[in-house]
Amino acid sequence: MLKGRHLIDPMDFSPEEIDEILQLSDEIIKNPRLYADVCKGYILATLFFEPSTRTRLSFEAAMLRLGGSVTGFSSADASSAVKGESVADTVKTISNYADICAMRHPKEGAPKIAAMYSDIPVINGGDGGHHHPTQTLTDLLTIRSLKGRLSNFTVGFCGDLKFGRTVHSLIKALSRYENIKFVLVSPEELRVPDYIKDEVLTKKRIDFVEVDKLEEIMPALDILYMTRVQKERFFNEEDYIRLKDSFILDLNKLENAKDDMIIMHPLPRVNEISMEVDSDRRAAYFKQTKYGMYVRMGLIMKLLGVEI
Fold this sequence. Notes:
Blueprint: H1 15-30, E1 43-48, H2 54-65, E2 69-73, H3 87-94, E3 100-105, H4 110-117, E4 122-127, H5 133-147, E5 153-158, H6 165-174, E6 180-185, H7 194-202, E7 208-211, E8 223-226, H8 237-243, E9 262-264, H9 285-304
Parallel strand pairs: 1-2, 1-3, 3-4, 5-6, 5-8, 6-7, 8-9
């Protein structure tokens, strides 16, 4: 049972529990009208202590499409945090007004603290560079919907693999499925942290390779997950200028890719995917945002324990 549970870390739920959420989300996609009033009378509080576009709006759209209501704030400046109120006091108060809350906070661990003091389910909508579990659910639903399965893939991650919380979370999540291989494409300065390699990939004996060129591994990929190479992560501008074009996806780099490969990105993008790729049939990153709304609909229903 997921009713009343919190979602703070992508690994909080078992593969079977995640499958429950994905299955319900798939049913909502097929017949959204059936679910239009299931959350009538319920209130979602969106506690966003830092700005967000996709995550906050998809949570709000999810609750509204389920027939529920939404309250909350979109930045710390619009809350009593500016007066020094603690996260614990904020969530204790919100528990009196809402039935479930989604929270984003710049400090790592803040949603976990909130869950300790909350009387309602807390969903982590991103805490610093730590976790973003609903993005992971979004990614899993996207893959499952477009590829029909969550096993037997070669997955390429490209860009900033050192600081990208979405990358770390998805590697952990996919590592629980069968026959997954990873190709990690990044400059040496932005490689996947050793703890991910040691505690997840090596420990579970998962095949992976690290490369610094995207074109050479493209034919092997079933999924390409792009992220931004951030200029501010480099110690000197010369290294950034030398490397940055290697990690920009354009149509030329896709010439040898599989016809059924899918291209994903957690967004926002800057220049790491050329706009000419948007019209390619393999581009899935805007579909991904829609799947994000559906998976949050399924998650809200499960945590509230509501059914048709």
